[in-house]
Structures
1.
Amino acid sequence: MECPTCHNTESSLVGSKNGHKLHRCANCSLLHVHPMPAADELLRYYQDYHKTPQYTRKLKSKQRRAKKRIWSLKRLTKGSKFLDVGCNAGFAVEAARSLGLEACGIDLDEASIKFARQQYPMGDFRKISAQDLAASAERFDIIYCCEVIEHLAEPHSFVDALYTLLNENGVLFLTTPDIAHFSVQQNLLEWTAVRPPEHLLYFSKPALTALLEAHHFRKINFRPNLKPTIKLLARKDAAAV
Ligand SMILES: [Zn+2]
């Protein structure tokens, strides 16, 4: 079996949850589901995704929290083009818009896009993948990607697209559960963030750094967090632009 991020073939079985086996890569420490669920299983799962409670719960407080984050991101770049990758119910796009940014949200889930458009009629919401958007000429100054990368079976084309979508002086803000956080090292499999097939890839800071650097992201800066979530900022490699 090959690690989905570093392609190393040595790994150890950590255990099983929800009928899925979880392996840890001996090289980059990524915890990943193997074998990955079939495409039709994932499709079935995500058809009902908008019915899950984490989807719409506390929309107002999510919007407030996103606004605080985006306000601090806005100070790190001069441009005003904001992209939320995996925009879900659209609250971060609305928060960015209220801060005067030109905000767009993308999601693969039809129901999410429909819900976001109903909830925030002024927002620009599109059902498109990051990879397909990267194939267009549109570029962004702030890319916001919260709790998305752990859902992917294959992260490389996705991270590559994030890099392409970012303007030269732009900033990427990304979050994902932190499997190496002190609060979850014991009983890792019992942790609520470990929930295959919804989450397929589980990162530590070194594993995520290796993945981002492989796609030329530089100045990777982790925000301290008492909660088990990796929060990072990354920029483009000026020399590679
Ligand atoms: Zn690996």
2.
Amino acid sequence: MYDGLTRPQCSVLTQLRTGHIGLHAHLHKIQVSPTPNCATCPTPETVNHFLLLCPAYRQQRLKLIIRLGTARLTLRRLLAAKSEHKAVFEFVRDTGRLPRYQL
Ligand SMILES: [Zn+2]
């Protein structure tokens, strides 16, 4: 499943899939962040919000849409299909939101 991916790429992929990642919704759950909400939006910063909805990453998402050739993004599509992982890593890197991953 993780053939051809670097260790940080495997790690971020697993964490995006499980939701156990450095976004506020998870950090709040494990009592590291005082709020579950996004820094930009009055809504929990979940993986779904980060990848698909947050307006703060509109530019990066547009690039993702162009690269994938479709605006019909779903978590399932982004995280399950092997061929799309590199575009997802590029999105994560471009947002600068999860800087501890060397993607
Ligand atoms: Zn947001």
3.
Amino acid sequence: YSKTCYQRSLIICDSVHVQWWKRPSGVAAVCLGLLCVLLLAGIIGLSVYYGVIGHHDQLQASYNTLTKERDQLQTSNSNLTKERDQLQTERDFLSGRLTHLKKTCSEGWQKFESSWYFLSNETKIWNKSREDCLKRGADLVIINSDKEQEFLFNLNKAVWIGLTDSVTEGTWIWVDGTPLTTPRYWSPHQPDNGDGKPEYGEEDCVEIHKDQSPRTSWNDISCNSKLNWICEKVV
Ligand SMILES: [Ca+2]
Ligand SMILES: [Ca+2]
Ligand SMILES: [Ca+2]
């Protein structure tokens, strides 16, 4: 070895030492590094993918829930619309009825409890009295309670009421077709159907006799007598 040769060989050795990536172990390290990077990228990619999928499923679930809720709201909305329409119809019907009542019940009519009453100024036979009530959209009064009986008695007039036995003698029927049960307010010894006296004739219609006491004031009398009358319209 000459000195020059030794220096050359040092230079070569040094140059091999600096270029480490050209050695097989260096290449393997680079490959390993790249593999790590690829794996990391794969893991990140998969995480993002499944994250998005999971989020998508959640969105789908809440979309379905919202759709259901929307359908329920639509159903209750249409139910409420129907109810509103029904209520509007009822309101219109009641307001029409109120207007009608105000018109018909304003003059000559008075209210007591749940009915309107019309006391006539003139006198007629029972049938004509009833006709007048029917024309007024009412009928001869039907007495349902002590209070009603006392109210009518206190009008202080002999009046026709809507009770008759003209179909079958002794079977008393109200003008609405119901038979007389209770309450009943006959005067003592009434009904007597004229007591067999020809001057009274057959007595098939009923008056409230004003000279009696409130709870014992009904009398049967000839339907051809002329009396005031009372019409009743139930509210
Ligand atoms: Ca009544
Ligand atoms: Ca009779
Ligand atoms: Ca009588």
4.
Amino acid sequence: MVKDLIILGAPGAGKGTLSADLCPLLKIKHISTGDLLREVVESGSALGQEIGGYIKTGALVPDEVIGRMIKEQLNTAECRNGVLLDGFPRTPPQAEMLENILADLQRRITAVFFLNIEQEQVVNRLIHRVSCRKCGKPYHLINLPPKKSGICDDCGGDLIQREDDREETIRKRFATFLEKTQPLIDFYDRKKLLLPINAGNNPQETLRIALADLEALLNNIK
Ligand SMILES: [Zn+2]
């Protein structure tokens, strides 16, 4: 059975980790819209040039163009077994467009994972992240601290915190995410496709819950 999945979650909820764990197990392709946009632009294809034109002028890439890009990708051999979409759709109109694209391909959304996490937990996860100014090596001050405080183990460079990982910025991004994503969460909840997953656990536990919930949903549908 083809599995076309979506993953939603605030920055810091662990979307990247769960996606990396889940996709090989389900033999499906992870499609991060941001990465795909960059790849398509770099490929220099007709679609890539069109998208590049929007990006260059700082304009938003229109939904219809993103839709064509996703459709092209869904048609490739690597997406035959299914995909895990990350970063698309972001709005109910985009979700409706995705339904039409999938219907054209005789496919449909199987499930939507929503990694649910408390704001305080995101703050605690991200606020301790630092990286080397020189070589970029990432550290976590609690879980993966450097040997010498403030200094990179590998190259001796200074460890710095990204603007994105400052507490105030984290709280702002979290609030914006919830506000923007709530309509989409409601959309998929009404369609009985939403799988809310408590993302406050360790990655192994999150993966186990995601797989169990997906199986339960699939069994209910049958
Ligand atoms: Zn370094």
